[in-house]
Amino acid sequence: MWNRRHVLAMGASVSALPFISSKGFSQSPAKEIRLLTWGGYWQDIFRPVAEAFEKDSGTKVEFVVQSGSADGLNKLTAQRGNPQVDVWTSIASTVQAATSAGILAKLDPEKIPHLKEMPKEFVSDAGVSIWLSPRGIFYRKDLAPFELKTWKDLWDPRLKDKVGVTLALDRGSFLIVSALLNGGDEHKIDAGFENIKKLKPNIHTVYSTDPESIKLLETDEVAVVAWGALPNVYHHLGPGSKYAFVMPTPHFLADIPVSIVKGRGEAQQMAAEKFVEYMLQPQYQTIMASIAGTVPANAKASIPEKLKGIIPSLPIADVYSVDWAYVNSQYSAWEDRWAREVQVR
Amino acid sequence: MHNKKLLVAALLLPGAAIIAVFIAMMASMVRYSFSPGGVSVIGEGFTFDNYWKFLSSWFYWSYLFGSLRISLYCTFISAVIGYSIAYAMYRSGPRTQLIFGAILIIQLFTAYVIRTYAIMLLIGKNGIINKTLLGLNIIQQPMRLLFTETGVAIGLVMVSIPFMVFPILASLKNISPNVEMASASLGATPMRIFWTVTFSLSLPGVAAGVVIVYLFELTSYIVPGLLGGGYADMIANFIYNKAMRSFDYTFASAAAVITLVLSGIVVLSLNKLFDRLTRHERA
Q1: pLDDT of B186-209, one tens digit each?
Q2: Residue B61 forms contact with A (CB below 8 Å)
Q3: Fold for domain B48-282?
Q4: Which residues lie below 8 Å from residue A151, measured CB to CB, with a gap of 6+?
Q5: Domains of chain A
Q6: CA–CA min distance A329, chain B (Å)
């Protein structure tokens, strides 16, 4: 016969169960994680890795789409109190902003052993590069009056009203290129604005996203896109193609970091760490780079054959490294100045 | 009686839920607008800095005034074209009305982005307009329509026409034919009948169309974004860029609150104006 004391003891035991299960036993990785990444064919890049990971670990990777890394950061900021994704791929500038805002988890080399073999410049507290994405000039050979080879070619008067430029894409990177060509850099951006103003006769329009830039070329609106990402145009290139991609010096290689979102719980974080570890393995680095048209960040991974004819020989020298923390602090002011000085006819 | 009250409450519940969500969103936005900000940061505390930053800069005001200006003349053009279409439908037979109505409804329910892309193909460098004019030797080189304010205006008018036609048509259909016949029998000319009777009595529809279209155009984002190429950004583009690209959420919230207040003033002013114009009808 159960008396009051038995009932109370039973109640106390049941109440303590959740604490025992979470603290007393070792946690196992979650059975599903969510990867916040770009849509369209970008998912084809991650799919082989995600499928192999699921087969090996039993953890399914569900894709959540962001229209761009800025969109991704906005989503993560909105979900800050209750994050809905585990792993995030973006660009260095947004990772810097997200790290400052305290959204991302610190990457632990004990739990992600491949971090130790990654080049130091590609590892930060909350992000590790999975590949390097070459940036350069993308143009239509049938519409451009000459073969473009250098950044300065964009200022050639023969390209009058034929060029599309961008500020938003890669967070002012083309403005920084313009500054570098005029003796400045991101810290001395006046030189960039001065140079862009000289480019105005050649500027036909301004685009904000990669798809927009490709559409401009496809509809003959512009002959040259001043700032393009090789992965976005990779499939358009090849023998007999009307498109060409050139990667002038100083070289810009956007490193594409993967990060783990903070606050999802131990089981989710554990699975996320295992997935990041998986992505850094040389064989998967090569698979992703071959599909994407990018350079693997892990130096032990082999370089896709098709890339060797498009970008300079590896390792690529003269790569410019942007101070993203500074750019992020200035970007809003640059945006206003761009609207006042560049986007006016 | 008690059951009737319960039924009314149950019917009002979905609407009340939507309004509650809307109020919660607005309240968040207002709260953020008074918070100190930074890159991707919504700070604690209270400040007027975001409002001061916007209101003290002529550059930021120019987005608001530019949007008001573009919306104003585009609404006028939409009203003229919309009234013409509605009047033609009103005067035509049921078959023509059905065809016109179907065309407008298909346009209305086609995704906004797709419609705007279609306009891009129309007014682009190699679009139908330029090709036709070049083919007819009217112009020697393609006109620049895309990525200009003209392009944005063409887009805004084209996508907002259905919002103007349907309220006007509904208003026209409410006019009794006897009123026009009575005017004619008293010797009024067709033009006089139109201005003093038909147009006058259809003003409530015009008022509804103007308010809907003006607000729709004032807060338009996709059309200026795609057809303006950054050369004719409106206030919604500015707010989006500040929030989603500069990650300056608090300043973007202040700009949105200012736009909301201004839109409210515009709607109230338009309502008062049309109220005065249609007073005789209600007398």
Answers
A1: 999 999 999 999 999 999 999 999
A2: no
A3: MetI-like fold (1.10.3720)
A4: A137, A177, A181, A248
A5: 32-132+254-308 (3.40.190.10), 133-253+318-341 (3.40.190.10)
A6: 7
